[in-house]
Design a protein that fits this description.
about 30% helix; four-stranded parallel sheet; single chain; alpha/beta; 9 helices; about 15% strand; about 325 residues
Length: about 325
């Protein structure tokens, strides 16, 4: 592949990105959560290129991004409950897993041959502009090598995928900073991945949500046991740093880097992946990253989910 282009979010940049996507190419683009690696979700070739560029296992399904609810209904079956959740939380950092329409036209690679589809309407204005300029559904996992730290800036995309994708559309830093919450709405509602919508908000509407998903046979992205990992090993719930550790703090206390000195979970989520990368750069060979305790509430549930997977044994 030729050198990866960096495009700006101008009419000309958006038109070029849409042209690449129409030619079954790959374009990374910003959402409010993280940068996604976009390809035409209807094209077997484009979707296969996503898996190849990321080194992602083919059994791990992808999220389909669309600009509005009318488009979403083209690919997924919405019952009254799904319509109500969509009305309350879309556009935004929520992915719904719904029954796949048999006439959807999506590549079976997107759904990993399941009879369900993960679908989302992003709120980011650049993502919206790109989807409307392209005029079709985009399969878009996070724009990073599989299992590594997710990208929240265009430079992060280039660090991992330069030369492996056609372009990155630079829309600045992502505001939310962790991937979308994934809610399963086939049968009883289930939380398939905590993320940018606090689980408490969903439970206020739907009642208590059990946790679903299977690391060996995922029915949605983000369920693999080892994921979001920096190069250095990770130690969680570290009150202080031990010799030979880089400490990533939260709230008051000594640290090399701090997710949120004021203990704000929204700020911590926005900073998580960027500062994980920075800590990895600071860590010398043989050193590890010690991460301060994060409250298990609100966006803290999503942060801790990512950190547990980052600290898990590598396959």
């Amino acid at each position: 592949m030729n050198q990866t282009q960096t495009l700006t979010a101008t009419p000309e940049g958006l038109a070029r990105a849409a042209q690449i996507l129409s030619g079954q190419g790959l374009v990374a683009f910003p959402t409010e959560t993280v940068y996604g690696l976009g390809g035409d979700a209807r094209s077997d070739l484009a979707v296969a290129r996503i898996f190849d560029a990321k080194g992602r296992p083919r059994f791990n399904p992808l999220i389909v991004h669309v600009p509005d609810l009318t488009a979403a209904r083209t690919y997924a079956v919405f019952d009254a409950r799904a319509e109500a959740v969509a009305a309350a939380f879309w556009p935004g950092p929520l992915t719904l897993v719904l029954p796949l329409r048999q006439d959807s036209g999506l590549s079976p690679l997107v759904t990993a041959d399941l009879e369900s589809v993960a679908i989302r309407i992003p709120a980011h204005p650049v993502a919206q502009a790109l989807l409307r300029s392209f005029g079709g559904p985009l399969a878009a996992p996070s724009a990073n090598p599989s299992g590594r730290v997710s990208p929240t800036r265009a430079v992060h995309v280039l660090e991992g995928l330069a030369g492996r994708i056609d372009a990155v559309l630079d829309g600045g830093a992502c505001a939310v900073g962790v991937e979308s919450t994934i809610l399963g709405l086939i049968g009883e509602p289930a939380l398939l991945r905590p993320g940018g919508i606090a689980v408490e908000r969903l439970e206020a509407m739907l009642g208590p949500l059990p946790t679903g998903g299977d690391a060996k046979k995922p029915n949605a992205p983000g369920q693999l046991a080892s994921h979001y990992a920096p190069g250095a090993p990770v130690r969680l719930n570290a009150e202080t740093a031990l010799p030979g550790e880089v400490r990533l703090g939260f709230g008051a206390g000594a640290s090399d880097l701090n997710l949120s000195p004021s203990g704000n979970l929204i700020e911590a989520a926005a900073n998580l992946f960027h500062l994980l990368r920075e800590a990895d750069h600071l860590a010398q060979p043989g050193q590890r990253i010690a991460i301060a305790p994060i409250p298990e509430q609100g966006l803290g549930r999503a942060i801790n989910d990512r950190l547990r997977r980052a600290a898990a044994p590598r396959p």
